[in-house]
UniProtKB/TrEMBL annotation:
Residues 224-354 form the Schlafen AlbA-2 domain. It comes from the Eukaryota. Gene3D superfamilies: Schlafen, AAA domain (3.30.950.30). Residues 111-130 have a biased composition (Polar residues). Residues 111-176 are annotated as: Disordered. InterPro entries: Schlafen, Schlafen_AlbA_2_dom, Schlafen_AlbA_2_dom_sf. This is Schlafen AlbA-2 domain-containing protein. Pfam families: SLFN_AlbA_2. The lineage of its organism: Eukaryota, Metazoa, Spiralia, Lophotrochozoa, Mollusca.
Length: 364
């Protein structure tokens, strides 16, 4: 991979590292642009992508956009849910995202204490500091000498008053972050699993609210059960039919210890996805809320969840619009009083929804 000109000093941007070194510069640039689109970083906020030997610099238009990009990109579990990081880095567990200026200081701290990192022309160069600069700033590393009295280049933190370099202070949170994420690139139903192009989520578990990050297109996620219902999704285009279906199934799951209805999955459990844009998602959420309000006794929003999981295509890229809609009624004990939707009681039994009659036919 060829090395491009480094970003100018004072430039806003982020650094992605480490990156694959066996990929051409043009191909890596394309992959990073796909990653930026996947995490919803606006194209107008990206001024340039510069590929270096083992890292990439993304030049950002403003400080506000830089902070936004840093927030979106820093958590591997979130990024892996939107784009397969193995297209860019060998091991997502070591993925790091820094501001360009912070990364420059970290690189500088790894060099001998008498040199600093500067840029000149098209290549990064080292420039020896003057004696005056040395005397104005305290030394944090000891110069190694030959013989038995050679000193370590690490700062002595055991002595009171010893200082720690700026790079070490900034690096510590990163190390803590990686330790927490080492075995947790994404979570499915509370169980840590590693995400790859071949597997996104475990099969649907009974009564679990999956809140899946993404599915693979044509992935088989299991079979319908007492707690799982699949719908291909054409009904979402018929507003009142969709509301009625959601209300009935939510009522049935409330009376049957919980469960999840999936829209965008066929009866065989194969993920097809729904073609949804943000406005359509918002409209569906409103319809679901209306359905829940028609259920008696009252159902709190904390008793169910709504999730739009993205769909990864066979190329490893996230589809911009394909989603799987998950409406989950959280696990619960059997109610003392059965729930009803529009005064009709529904219950989920043996993989089907049953109408148990009008609420007035029951005495509580």
């Amino acid at each position: 991979m060829s090395q491009s000109t480094s970003a100018p000093i004072g430039q806003y941007g982020i650094v992605l590292h480490p990156i694959l070194q066996n990929v051409s510069e043009s191909e890596m640039t394309k992959r990073i642009h796909k990653l930026l689109r996947a995490v919803r970083i606006a194209a107008q906020d990206v001024k340039d992508v510069i590929i270096q030997r083992d890292y990439a610099e993304v030049i950002i238009a403003s400080k506000e956009a830089e902070e936004h990009a840093l927030k979106l990109m820093q958590d591997p579990s979130v990024v892996m849910g939107l784009y397969n990081l193995r297209n860019i880095t060998a091991n997502p567990k070591t993925w790091l995202v820094d501001k360009i200026q912070t990364f420059g200081r970290q690189v500088q701290s790894r060099l001998p204490g008498t040199k600093s990192l500067t840029t000149s022309g098209s290549a990064t160069k080292l420039q020896t500091k003057s004696t005056t600069e040395k005397s104005q700033r305290p030394q944090t590393t000891a110069v190694a000498t030959s013989g038995a009295h050679a000193q370590s280049d690490k700062p002595d933190t055991s002595k009171a008053g010893s200082s720690m370099s700026e790079s070490q202070v900034e690096k510590s949170p990163k190390q803590s972050f990686l330790m927490k994420k080492r075995a947790e690139l994404t979570k499915v139903q509370g169980t840590p699993v590693f995400v790859s192009v071949k597997t996104s989520t475990a099969e649907v578990k009974p009564c679990g609210c999956p809140e899946t990050i993404f599915y693979h297109h044509l992935q088989n996620i299991g079979t319908e059960t007492r707690h799982v219902e699949f719908k291909k999704g054409g009904v979402i285009n018929e507003r009142y039919s969709f509301r009625d279906m959601v209300g009935k199934y939510m009522c049935g799951f409330l009376n049957s210890e919980g469960g999840t209805i999936f829209f965008g999955v066929n009866d065989s459990g194969v993920v097809l996805g729904l073609d949804l844009d943000p406005q359509y998602e918002a409209a569906l959420k409103r319809d679901i809320t209306c359905s829940a309000r028609m259920i008696e006794p009252h159902v709190s929003t904390s008793e169910y969840s709504v999730n739009f999981a993205r769909v990864m295509e066979r190329t490893g890229d996230m589809s911009p619009y394909l989603k799987v809609l998950e409406i989950c009624v959280k696990p619960r004990d059997p109610p003392e009083r059965l729930y009803s939707y529009k005064d009709i009681i529904y219950m989920r039994r043996d993989g089907s929804l049953q109408n148990l009659g009008h609420v007035d036919d029951y005495q509580w």
